[in-house]
Each structure stands twice: as structure tokens, then as C-alpha cells.
# Entry
Amino acid sequence: MNHRPGVENTRSPLRVTLIAITALGLLAGCGVSAGESFETIAPQEIPFGLDQPLSTAASTTTTTEPPEGPDGATPTTSPVQTEPVNVYFVLGLDRLQRLTVQFASPVELLQVLALLVDGPPSEQSIGLRSAVRSGLVVDLFSERGVAQVDLRGSVLNQLAPRDQRLAIAQIVLSVLGSARGVGQVSFTIDGEPAEIGIPPDYTLSRPGQPLTFADFDSLLSGRPGETLPIAEPEVTGETESGETGSETESGESESAEDAD
# Structure
């Protein structure tokens, strides 16, 4: 194929020039014209928080604690409910003294038994003791209005005969003085129905015979009972006149006069 001299050289520069003009036109359409300038938008005019940086921090949960009281303690809204319970301890050689103790409600028989084992709970009870020893009671429960008490024979035999009788009397009077719906107490020794001596002459009952409060009330002392709170140990037991134990002394004097 024959070419005329100079034709190819004139077409190539023209083609390059057209391509360059086209590219500049495209760039001009996508950019900012020479007569325009950038405008700054105020942060409060930017919608939807588009100017906020993205955060990858984990979210946290805040727990609000209840306000503290004036003394720094957290106030409580559920006061502990208590109820009075009559328990009996040995006074002197062969008498029983009533103490009224405040127990958290509802009262459990095993709580009463634990108090008998521990002994009188207050300094106001000087002169009192308990004949009930640890390990004496193997089982204690109530059924159909009768408390069932199983004693361990080996521990019972370690007690003097007088303390055996007093321990049984303590259990009978304290159980019947504390348990609602229970009116009798029956004893077994090592699982076998037991014969219990009933005062004042300690005639033996039938084996497993249910015993009542009246069977042992002849052992009660003439001394007025004291109220000893467990839930509120700050009570001192002083009378309104400031004298401690004046009621007890007058009660003993009255008992002595009655005896005369």
C-alpha cells in the first residue's frame, strides 16, 4: 500500500490533541469550576451526627445503688418479725424458772432445743442452769399435736437421777410453751417408748404416754418470769425507776409471805 509522504505525520498529533481535550472536559465536569470555592458547614447544621467518629468501644451497664441513710447504712424495708417463746431453766436444786425470749418468727422446735442446750441467754439469768446436755436429744418433731422426742440413752445415763428428771421437765415445758398447735409430748429412748417419772412423787407413766404441761407445773418456782429478747439484746431489763430486778425481789417476798 502506498502512502503519501507527510500524511501519517499530520494525523497523529491531531488525534492526540483531541484525546487530551476530551479528558480535560470530563475532569472539569466532575470537579470544582474555576469560579467556585469550598464552603464550611457549621457542626450544628450537620444532620444525623455524620460528623461524629465511629466508636468500637464496648457498651457498659450502670447499676444504681439505693441511697444510704444518715449514718451511712443502707435502709431496710422488711423488719424482722418476732414472737415470744417461754423456755424453762433449772433454778436451785429442783425448780424450773420461766424465761420469755423473743425468737424470729416462725419458731422452730430445734431452735428451742438449741437454747436449752446452750443455757440461759442473759446475765439477768444468774442462778439458772440447764440440765439438757448436748447430744441428749436425737430427734424432735411434732405430729398431730404431739411432739415426739427421742433421747439418747447413753447421754441420759450420764446425768444424775435428779438432772434426768429436770431435763425431761425442761423439754416438756419449753416445747409446750413455744410450739403452736402442740399440746402433748411423748418420749422414746433409743427409739423405744419410754416410761417417764411424773412429779411430785415421780410415778412412772405408761411407755410412750403423751405428757402435758400440767404433769410438770408443780416444779415451777414462785419467782416471776423474766423477758429476755434475743432479737434486741440492748434491752437491759431495768425498771422505769432505774432499779434492776426490783420486780423479782418483790415477787420472791410475796411468795415467802404466801408460804408462811
The longest helix spans residues 7-30. The chain is about 25% helix and 20% strand. The radius of gyration is 47 Å.
